[in-house]
């Protein structure tokens, strides 16, 4: 568990408020509060938990404000450690909640599924991935996933300014970690709020789920990273770990990390078809496959699926479907050399 830093006045009307994520190795989410004549505007809101709520409330009080003064919450992406408390902030203050339209659309899909629908989807996808039946049975017995956060009332699009009176906070759409992930460029302060898109030493989870959807989240993530160096922001304010400079070089490191993983996965493909579960279990992870929790194995499979999709787009992997629907991959066939 990471040790939580203190609440900090970063100067220029920006405050950093760490909000704990109970029982999670990430430790905390860094919430940023921007001062404005209409009240603070929060970048993210933190996990839905009483301990998190108390930390957010205390941090706002330390900056001379309160929850009831909050003017708005702009959420970098829908994940619960970023969006969980947004609804509670809105109830206390009447604040608006803003999020990119692509993540709002995804939240509606999750909400329409409901808890039982989410569980059925997980089970169906595990079968497509070729997971062992005992793994499928385990997921079938699990409680439904977390309820989605409160629906935002202000959709955001790339390039628009967020409603922060007296400031210029511009949306930079950076899909990959989620379809609607955004960074926020504070143009009057030369800062970039990076959410989970660029972190100083860890890389965000880039997964494809459902496994049979046709989009390519890893390629969009890599493209989003490549474009950040053009912004010229001097300092990154990420949602986890700590502030840092050198956004362009760090983005290049993350791109190189994923290119190495793509090379490793391409080398694991052969002419004999392999399921997603077989390929994911054969790759190196921080923990051995057997020691992983069921959720960690599913996330590893999701990450492997995202890398396979990029290899498909690059014509370095070929997808097949068994008659019963299980997905498999092979290396591309090598045509025999022409005889001259």
UniProtKB/TrEMBL annotation:
The keyword Membrane does not apply. Keywords: Hydrolase. Coiled coil: none annotated. InterPro entries: Metallo-B-lactamas (IPR001279), RibonucZ/Hydroxyglut_hydro (IPR036866), Sec-metab_biosynth-thioest (IPR050662), WH-like_DNA-bd_sf (IPR036388). The keyword RNA-binding does not apply. Residues 28-240 form the Metallo-beta-lactamase domain. GO terms for molecular function: hydrolase activity. It comes from the Bacteria. PANTHER family: ENDORIBONUCLEASE LACTB2, METALLO-BETA-LACTAMASE SUPERFAMILY POTEIN. This is Hydrolase. The lineage of its organism: Bacteria, Bacillati, Actinomycetota, Actinomycetes, Streptosporangiales.
